[in-house]
Amino acid sequence: MAQAYWSSVFTSSAADLWAVIRQFNGLPAWHPAIKTSDIVEGDSAAAPGAVRVLTGTDNSTYRERLVGLDDARRALTYEIIDSPLPVRGYRSTLQVWPIADTGGAFLTWHAVFDAADGHTVEQAATAITEGAYAPAIAALHQAVR
Q1: What confidence category does residue 58 fall into, taking pLDDT thresholds of 50, 70 and 90?
Q2: In sequence order, what DSSP letters do the residues of 6-42 get, joined into one string?
Q3: What interhelical angle do 134-143 and 14-21 show, nearest 10?
Q4: Nearest of 29, 7, 46, 43 to residue 137 by alpha carbon
Q5: Is the pLDDT score of 145 beyond 90?
Q6: Distance (Å, rounded) from C-alpha 61 to C-alpha 39?
Q7: Quick check: 44 pLDDT over 90?
Q8: Which one of 18, 41, 87, 117 counts the least CB within 10 Å of its CB?
């Protein structure tokens, strides 16, 4: 399996950053490439097994399942069921860590996946990190001040 990773330091507190990240149905509030998010399966957006359908600003669609939501560890894990990304078997975790000496937060976004047929691991990793993670985290800095 291949991996993708991105991280960033925030001036906002871990609690404030986690309040935004933990909203499985909240991507349109901060991800610049996501126009809408609808929960289409499951009882709530916070229950493992919930499925969201994301619509991108380019009208692409992503179907993703919430695998785990751990408030104590400030970790949200999801998997892609279907998307235009050149990946299969994608599972990702966003985790928020407090920074003791500044009162800020450290966010990690890590995924494991296989490259889809006809694509290299490098193409898949670049699509994830540069196409999704980097712009999302840059926008998240603006959303959580």
Answers
A1: very high
A2: EEEEESS-HHHHHHHHT-TT-GGGT-TTEEEEEEEES
A3: 120
A4: 7
A5: no
A6: 13
A7: no
A8: 117
